[in-house]
Design brief:
140 residues, alpha+beta, ATP Synthase, domain 1, nine-stranded mixed β-sheet, 2 helices, 9 strands, 41% strand, globular
Amino acid sequence: MSIMQVEVVSNEELIFAGEAKFVVVPTVNGELGICPRHEPIMSLVRPGALRVTPADSDEEVLVAVAGGVLEVCPSKITVLADVVVRSAEIDQQRAEEAKKAAEASISQAKDDESRARAQAALAAAIAELKTLEYLSKRRI
């Protein structure tokens, strides 16, 4: 079986580091499925569910990412994410409230800095909601 090294890193911590047989990353051009020996690419990550299938399991590691950068090399994938939330830590009601609050903050922003903070919060909330949506479809 062919495997690749995967690292998912946020500003605060290492989220996942290990061997994987398949990774799906939400990019600005759509979801990208990556197998070992993939052609090298770089892409921006959009808010959504990042899925890693570890080499020793068929159970996906699922995290919400709010944006960032993806680097793919033939034997290694690195995701430098702006915000990452593990699927077990996501709460639907809190994410929906955070989305509404961020949308309100964007419309009330008085300067670029506060608008950028509100847009980052909105991206994080959207990532969590998309991850929950993926989880609910997977359970059906």
